[in-house]
Amino acid sequence: MNKTQQIIFGLAVGAALCIGVIAGMSFSENIFVVMGTGLAAGFIVRFVVQRAFAEMNKNQS
Q: Residue 61: which pLDDT band, with cuts at 50, 70 and 90?
């Protein structure tokens, strides 16, 4: 990954964690549910962004 992709990756995962925590807080007050929702959202976005960058890099070469 080049520097631009790393920055985009970090911003996407950070935003997903934030949105996941907010979504978790909207339907539960249990801290484990809130953190689990945030981590799940972050993991899903991490997987999607890495897959997208891998496809982009494969198409460039």
A: low
What pTM, to 2 d.p., does this model score?
0.84
How many angstroms separate the CA atoms of 20 and 39, rounded? 7
Which of 60, 39, 44 has its CA nearest to residue 5? 60
> What DSSP assignment string belongs to 4-48?
HHHHHHHHHHHHHHHHHHHHHHHH---HHHHHHHHHHHHHHHHHH
Distance CA 57, CA 59 (A): 5
Question: Which of residues 59 and 24 earns the better pLDDT score?
Answer: 24
